[in-house]
Amino acid sequence: MISAGVSVGRPGEVRRRQIAAIDAEHRGSVLTSVMDAVDDTARGLTGRGLVALDDYEKALVKDFSVAFCAARGNAVGTH
Question: CB-based burial of residue 39 (10 Å sphere; 0-12 exposed, 13-18 middle, 19+ buried)?
Fold first, then answer.
């Protein structure tokens, strides 16, 4: 008997969904780690007076850093 709300599919489909969920969770944790590292770096540089960034510039640095890490990840994955 199948209970309500339980998705029944071919074993390959279920496995692909499980892998996709694990992959999404991993990507989320990697992105969080990257953002934390970038934030720590920006705070360290500004806290020591080495650079002065306004909120827009801080966001721009974070965006560039994430784009750089994403590009490196794609380059590594293709070789």
Answer: middle
How high is the pLDDT of residue 74? 59
70: nearest Cα among 35, 22, 44, 36: 35
Dihedral sign, CA of 46, 59, 78, 27? positive
pTM for this model (two decimals): 0.51
Do 38 and 46 touch, CB atoms closer than 8 A? Answer: no
pLDDT tens, residue by residue, 11-65: 788 889 999 999 888 888 887 887 788 788 888 888 888 888 888 988 888 788 7
The runs of H, that is alpha helices, within the chain are: 11-47, 55-78
Cα–Cα distance for residue pair 31/36, rounded to 1 Å = 9
